[in-house]
Structures are given as structure tokens and as C-alpha cells.
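This protein record is not my work; I was only asked to verify it. Would you go through it and say whether the fold makes sense for this chain? Here is the record exactly as it was handed to me.
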Amino acid sequence: MLEIKVSELEKVVLVGVIYQRQDRKVVFDHLEELKLLCSTAGAEVVKVFVQELKHPNPTYLIGKGKAEEISHFVQENKISAIVFDDELTPTQIRNLENLAKCKVLDRAAIILDIFASHAQTREAKTQVELAQYQYFLSRLTRQWTHLSKQFGGIGTKGPGETQIETDRRIIKRKIGTLQKKLEEIDTQRSIQRKEREKFFEVVLAGYTNAGKSTILNSLTNANVHVEDKLFATLDSTTRLVRTKKGLEFLLSDTVGFIRKLPPNLIASFRSTLAEIIYSDLILHVIDSNHPSMDEQIKVVEDTLEDINAGHIRQIKVFNKVDLVADKTKLEILSLKYPDSIFISATRGININALIEKIENIILENYVTNEILIEPDNSYAIKEIYSLSEDVQSSFENGMIKIRFTVRKENYNLLKKILPEISK
């Protein structure tokens, strides 16, 4: 991926549209989030334009008069990009760029740009690059062909000018190559998952910047990168956690969700999101101090359903409680979500209670048993050791006494293959 470094912050303007029956507050909340996205991408928001419309204008999305007003402002103030909160069609992008003589981007382009900057591992880079090519393929117009050469800066990191200047056939070929790479990564991950099957797997999921990485650090001392920016974590990190009670579980951090997340990006990150799909427990981390908390919860719930993880057991973890001024809000949330827990990962508030809650759920999913086995029954001994979490053995009257703790599904498997357990 080609990343174009910007020596100083680019100046951009934001554009939002309020349609009929749409809540104005929600639109302005979205624009505030878009402002933070632009800041994370390396841009300074100079002004925000908002227009009320009955329906989108096919030529500019916004009305012609508003488009001309924005274009004049852009040219007079040397603005490098116009960023729309809503998705734009290739035609709308081309028309707006011809009118304003600068880059025109939508929210998806900014998100992809941030992902391109934050991808560290080969897997994350491949996933982002695939999403970028798919995004640009659907918007490949003559104007976009020379976008990198014309403008540079935010929204143009990724495939790079050489690839963008090629035709659709070559881009499709590149997409095919990247998809094959991800299939290889999927295979590798499947092997890793098979090796981890005997462990109870807990995954951190939630809206971006809710504090997932901070919780991972609190529970594992993993020293995962933590930053108060959107999408600070792209790569899945997994650590083994051993509790004071001697229980073990795998804890994984995942990429944060966000409203209007590009579908191609979700599809590209399928191997990373598989950590969620194959988990035993989801810790849905929520920023309890965020003004759009309810909407963020819904975005995460909807995304979990979209990736077929809605059926997995979940604990809602309300983070950053130390920042909530009105404690009545927390009391209301505890009534609304009775199985939830309230913590502050940065200050260590209620972390032990969170661990205890995880321990209790783990114990619900395990069986402890004790059996006597003939010393020469190596097959039974091998199967118990391979499928169990904890095994203790001793000799008793010429027999081997084995006490083992095993997950319920593995216990049922052992009962099928070892008659000794059913006795």
C-alpha cells in the first residue's frame, strides 16, 4: 500500500444532509464523529455545511446552490478536500470535483484511509488493500483515475497511483490475488483455532474507541497499543489469561465497529472477525460516557448479527464510568441491562469483578470428573489429556486415578469414545 505523508494538516470541510423525518441531533452527532475521523486521518476541519433535503440530488447529492456555495468557500480558503458523511456515487464525486476543483470524499473513503495508515501486519494490510480496491473499482471514473496525482493526501492512501491508473480488468485481477492471499490466511487461522479449541475463548468487541485495548492491557499486561483515536487497533491480539482461581481463558481484541462501516471492509476483515464468530463469550465494551451510547450499542449489535455472531453469549461491559458525571445514568443502565458490569479500565475500577464474572461463566461451561483407568489403556489417557483443561493423576490399587476438568462439549465427546467415563 502506498501511503502519502502529509507534512501539515490538510484543510477540509464537512457536508451533512438532514432528510425528512430525520433527527437533527443524530445528524450532527454523525458529523462530530466524522470530524474525529478526519482528525485521525490527518486533516483539520475548517467548516461544516448542513442542508435539509426532501430527497438526495442525483447530480451533487446536495442542491446545486449549496454545492456552488461550498465550491466558492473551498476555492477562496484553499481547502484541499470536501468530505461528505453520506455515501456518494461516482457521478456525484466527479460532478462535485469538477465544480470545486478539489478532492471529494465520503465517510467510507476516510475510514479506509485510516485503516491504511494503521494496518501493521501482513494480514491487516492485505485486508485493507482488498477493501480499497473494491471501493475504488466501483468508483473508477476518469476523474478518479488521476486522483493521487492531482490531489494526494488523505483519502488517497492505498492502492496507489500506478494501480488506480490501470483499467478495471487489471484491478479485478489484483482483487483476485488479494482474495487468494486472504484465503491462505484463513487456512492458517483455522489451524490456529483448532489448536485453541480446548480453551475457553473470550473476545472483546465494541464500537471503536470504547476502550477494548485498555481492557486487554488491564487483564493481560499485553501492552497493546492504546490511543485516544478511532481505529487505533486493527490487528487481532490474543493472550492467555490465568486467573487467581487457576482458570485459564484466551482473550482477544478485535477491530472496532463504527456506523456506516463500508461493507467491503467487513468482508475483507472476515478472518479477523472470525475471532468473534468462534468465541465462547463476547465482552461488548461500551463507552458509558458517550453522548451517542445507545446508537453505538445498536451499531455493534447489528454488526454482530451481520457476521452471524448474534447468538453468542454476551456481557455488556460499560467502560469509562469514572467519566460519567450523573451516576443516576449508571443506575438506569444497570436496570436496563441487569447482566452487565460497570468498569473503568484506565483506573482499574471493578476489573476484579469483571474477571470473577468471566470465571463464573467458564465454570458453567466445564465439568470436573474423576475416573479409574487401567494403566495399559494409553488411548483413554491420551484422549483425556488432549481434550481437558486440567488433569491430575495418581496410582490407586494398581489403577490410574485421573481427575480432570473439561469443557462440556468435550466431556460429551469423551463419554462417546471412552466407556470408562460412563460407568
